[in-house]
Amino acid sequence: MNAIELTNVSKHFRDVHALDDVSVTFDEHRIYGLLGRNGAGKTTLMKLLTGQQFATSGSVRVFGENPVESARVLSRTSFIQESQKYPEQFRASDLLDITAGLYPEWDADFAAQLVDDFRLPVKRVIPKLSRGQLSAVGIIIGLASRAPLTIFDEPYLGLDVVARRLFFDRLLADFGEHPRTVLLSTHHIDEVSKLLEHVVLLDEGRVLADASVDELRSAATEVSGRASDVRAFAADRETLQLQTLGSLATAAVLGDRTEIVAATSAAGLDTAPVSLQDYIVHLTTSAAPGAVTAGKE
User: Fold this and answer.
1) pLDDT value of residue 226
2) Which residues in the chain are classed under CATH 3.40.50.300?
3) What is the DSSP string of the chain?
4) What is the pTM of this model?
5) Is the pLDDT of residue 297 over 50?
6) Mean pLDDT for the stretch of residues 206-230
7) Terminus of the chain with fewer CB atoms < 10 Å: N or C?
8) Average per-residue pLDDT in the chain?
9) pLDDT (tens digit, 9 = 90+) per residue, 100-144?
């Protein structure tokens, strides 16, 4: 069943087309990466899903309803925004107490466990919390709400590597016990790639890729060797990017990996997998026609 369905959705701000004819669905009980460069349209899409903005045209449905002014949808949606603002007179404990009354699935014991895990000083007022501690507040709310739709927008600004790993581990473990639809919007793709099942990649307001992570990981292969040999190998193939350094070169080549490995072996070239992050970077910086070959499952 679809948790989210956008059909021909556009959002325009005067002469800026933040989203342009976007059609995409998000299934229930999966972890999605909502990816793209700054200005790609990610924040606009998330605000449409949470009823904070109206679409210029098209249909937005969350759990089958228009999310705008829908108490049923909003009570089932947790949106943790980048640089979330909280009332300065509140303590972290106040925020958790208030949030507990907003979400039917709120788990107070889990919230208390997360407070301990992240070593959050809950009696400290908001202005006295560090950037990482503020991120921890948002993460605790997002996880403990157990909302059927949970959206994290760059959730771990300021967190150290231990705290980021803790977030990933707690999210994955709790998702296994309490499945929901999770959208992660982040620029740190390699860090979250093991969590993601599916990626929706936006670029200049349009969907550039909508595919499973496995499909995207296998869509391209890095070929390296002498520059002349790499250029000759890539000449008849769809190539996302080719970089030359002196007499050597590397190319990200699209196509069946088994065939590419066999062909490069015969040509004396080396191959390596392209990481999800590198593939996304290649896609969003390449002007090559036909570069996007991955489609939704």
Assistant:
1) 95
2) 2-214
3) -EEEEEEEEEEEETTEEEEEEEEEEEETT-EEEEE--TTSSHHHHHHHHTTSS--SEEEEEETTB--TT-HHHHTTEEEE-TT----TT-BHHHHHHHHHTT-TT--HHHHHHHHHHTT--TTSBGGGS-HHHHHHHHHHHHHHT--SEEEEESTTTT--HHHHHHHHHHHHHHHHHS--EEEEE-S-HHHHTTT-SEEEEEETTEEEEEEEHHHHHTSEEEEEEEHHHHHHHHTTS-EEEEEEETTEEEEEEES-HHHHHHHHHHHT-EEEEPPHHHHHHHHHH---TT-------
4) 0.88
5) no
6) 93
7) N
8) 91
9) 999 999 999 999 999 999 999 999 999 999 999 999 999 999 999
Structure-token match 């503020």, residue found: 134
Average pLDDT over residues 145-171: 94
Report the CATH superfamily, name and number, of domain 2-214: P-loop containing nucleotide triphosphate hydrolases (3.40.50.300)
- Going through the chain in order, the beta strands assigned E by DSSP cover 2-13, 16-27, 31-35, 57-62, 77-80, 149-153, 181-185, 198-203, 206-212, 220-226, 239-245, 248-254, 270-273
Q: Decide which of 3.30.160, 3.30.70, 3.40.109, 2.60.40 is the CATH code for 219-285.
A: 3.30.70
